[in-house]
Each structure stands twice: as C-alpha cells, then as structure tokens.
Amino acid sequence: MGIVGIICEYNPLHLGHAKQIQMIRRLRPADTKIVCLMSGNFVQRGEPAIFHKSVRAQAALEVGADLVLELPVTYALSSAENFAYGGVRILGAFCDELCFGAESGDGESLMNTAKILLAPEFKDALRLFLDQGLSFPAARQRALKQLGNDAGLLTAPNDILGVEYCKAILQTGCPMKPLVIHREGNYHDLVADPKNPSATALRQRIADTQSIDDFVPTSRFHHATIHTSSAGERAILCRLRTMTESEFACVPYGSEGLWRKLMHESRRQASLESILTAVKSKRYTRTRLNRMVMCAFLGISDSMLSTPAPYTRILGFNDQGRQILRAAKQTGLYYNVGQKVDDPFWTLEQRCADLYGLFALDHPEPPGDETKQRVILFNQ
Questions:
Q1: Residue 55: which of 367, 368, 360 has the closest Cα?
Q2: Alpha carbon distance 279, 256 (integer Å)
Q3: Where would I find the H helices in the chain?
Q4: Please, which residues have CB within 8 angstroms of residue 301's CB and are 6 or more apart in sequence?
Q5: How far does Cα 344 stand from its chain's mean position?
Q6: What is the structure's pLDDT at 149?
Q7: Bridge partner list, 360
Q8: Which residues pair with 68 in a beta bridge?
Q9: Does 187 have pLDDT greater than 80?
Q10: Which residue(s) pair with 8 in the sheet?
C-alpha cells in the first residue's frame, strides 16, 4: 500500500485541488492512499481561514482524501521554510511520497535548487546581500545567481514552496520522494479561471458576495460561516494596544527591531491597515507582517513557534484512512480533534479556536467550539 501525502490549506478547496487528487489516483496504483495535512483555522498568510477547518476537512474527504490531519497552528503560521519543514516532519514518518504542484513542474530542478540552498557557501552569499539591505527573497535570488543556479525557479509561489519541501526532505532525511505536478493557472489571479481558479480569486469573490459554486467541486461551502481578517480587526487592535513592551519583544518575526516598530505604530495608528503600512518596508514582506500580527493576537511567542509541535490532530478519515492511522500512530502522537491533552500546547489550541470565532463575518461565535469538535467518519 503506497501512501501519498499533501500539505495543504484548502482555503478554500477548489477545482485545482480536486484535480491534484484525481491525478494522484491516475498516476499511482489503485490501492494508493492519500493523506492531507491541512492548516487548521489560521493559514500561512497570517489570516484566519475563510471557512472552519471541519468544513474544509469534510470537503477534502468528499473529493478523494482518505485521511485529513491538522497541521499544528505553530507550523501553519510559520514562514514557508518552517511551514514545509513542519509538514514534512509529520508526513515523512509514514508517507512514501509528497505530492505538490509547482509552476515549473520540474522536480529535479527543484531538488537541485534545494541542495544549493543548504550548502554552506550559500549562507555566506545570502548574508552578503542581506547586509546590503535587500529583502530576504531578493537576497536569496541574488545569492543563487551568484552560485550559478537558475534563480528563476524562486519567482513563482508554488515553485518557492516546492523548493522548501525538497529542503525539508533533505534536512529530515526521510525516505519520502517528491511527486511534482505542473501547477496550471496563476496563484495570484484576482479573477477566477473557470478550470484553474486561484484560492485568492475565490476569497475575493466571497468578499464581494459572489458565488463560488462554479469553481469548487463540492457544495460543502454553501452555507458555511465566512471568516475574514476585517471582521476581527477591532479584536486585533485591542490586543495590540494593550500589549506590554516585553510581550512585543517575544513576538515571532520581530528581529532587527521590527517588533519595536510594530509596538510604536500600534500606539499611533487607528486601523490595522495603517499600522501594517507604516511598519512595512522593502526588507519585510507584507505576509511576514501579517503573521507577526496574528501571532501577537493569538499569544504565540517566538519560542512557541520554534518548538516542534508535540502531537498532531486527526480531523477525519474513511475506511482506508483508518488503515493509514494504524501505521501513523507507530511513528508519533495523534489525538482526535476535540480531545483534551495534558500538554501546554492544548491550551494554545483552545485559545486559537476561541479567538477564531471573533473573525466570523456576521457576528462573533461563542468560545468552547474546539472541545465540541468530533472526528469526521466519512462513508463513501
């Protein structure tokens, strides 16, 4: 029995995601099982997921996943590097392959780029360009070019993440192999392509109260509660305005005095957008700032983010997924969603779940939702 893993957000799950699962079914033997390791209620862009994790997990099972696990929140809100590393660390223990889409569709080139990024001489070249004031993405590209690598691979978002997956596979030493699929369409499109829509475009349609029915393979999202950053803006501002200096100093991504700049602007600006605009510079990406603010809001410190998650949550499975779990549980700790765990990480999970309810679009949701969640048992 082969097991293929997918690290995903499904924010929301669309036709392109369903196509990936269908392609795995075509490329691999009929008894191959598919595991989706999905971000929970907060995603890597530093935002709340548009729909609750239980809704998105159900959608994944409906389109062909056998097992859906939750990517712990400290990995989900990490940089691309740590997002990939956390996901590979979990799936690499029991999956044979990691499937992901990439604009280049070139697995060999992605792996070769990953090897160069891990080479000692790359660190020296990167530091040289960072010291010149370049942003990290720009410095990385210049360093790769200096070492004779095609830096063009690191211009498209899925290629960038694909390289990080390859790096994580090399760093962890896991036997999992990359299964690279050509990613069609444009990740950043604001207009939804009928065949290859971007999640960005679908979130925009949702924000504009337009239907996404033609772009998703399931009716699961039809009546689901929508969650947006703007709906929870006042809650975030309240947190930022009442944080102490020592709390700001512990916020992730705040190195080189960035936390101090965020603290000052939080005490001067009236809106979240004006805070982020005032803090942003060419050295720091907007996504990094979004993650920084979200971690501050959720009470996630730099030390929490850098500590490996102690366990993984089970969101749902079918009969084949139950078989996978038997193998997975021999390699790590897995707990059902909603199950209480005697670990400080459980307290963080509860806090994140309770605060997620403040991002509900129409009205805040009551706390305590996490302990009421149950694993989805999907019958095909």
A1: 360
A2: 13
A3: 15-27, 53-62, 73-76, 80-91, 107-117, 120-130, 136-146, 157-172, 199-207, 233-242, 245-249, 258-266, 272-279, 286-298, 302-306, 319-328, 344-356, 369-372
A4: 250, 251, 252, 295
A5: 22
A6: 76
A7: 227
A8: 36, 316
A9: no
A10: 38
Pairing between β-strand 312-317 and β-strand 67-71 as defined by DSSP bridges: antiparallel
User: What is d(CA 239, CA 75) in angstroms, rounded to the nearest whole number?
Assistant: 22
Residue type for position 27: L
Other CB atoms within a 10 A radius of the CB of residue 326 amount to 9
- pLDDT one-digit tens code per residue, 340-376: 999 999 999 999 999 999 999 989 999 998 999 999 9
Contact predicate 39/132, CB 8 Å: no
Per residue in 108-125, is it b (16+ CB within 10 Å) or e — as a string? ebbbbbbebbeeeebeeb
Taking 3-state DSSP, the helix, strand and coil percentages for the chain, each rounded to the nearest 5, stand at 50, 15, 40
Using CA atoms, how far apart are residues 245 and 243, in angstroms rounded to an integer?
7
Torsion sign (Cα): 331, 337, 340, 344: positive
Distance from the first to the final alpha carbon of the chain: 19
| Interval 256-265 mean pLDDT | 95
Amino acid found at 330:
Q
> Which one, of 75, 77, 79, lies nearest residue 37 by Cα?
75
Amino acid at 286: R
What is the per-residue pLDDT for 169?
97
In the block, residue with structure tokens 């916020």: 251
**Pick from 7, 10, 11: which is nearest to 204 by CA?**
11
- Per DSSP, 308 falls in state P
Spatial CB neighbours of 256, under 8 Å, sequence gap ≥ 6: none
Report the distance separating Cα 276 and Cα 281, nearest Å: 10
The b/e string for 47-73 (b: 16+ C-beta within 10 A; e otherwise) is: bbbbbbbbbbbbbbbbbbbbbbbbbbb
Please write down the long-range contacts of 106-111, taking CB distance under 8 Å and 24 or more positions apart. Answer: 106/153, 106/180, 107/162, 107/178, 107/179, 107/180, 109/150, 109/153, 110/153, 110/159, 110/162, 110/163, 110/165, 110/166, 110/178, 110/180, 111/166, 111/170, 111/178
- Residue 225: strand pairing partners: none
The pTM (predicted TM-score) of the whole model is 0.94
| Total residues belonging to the chain | 380
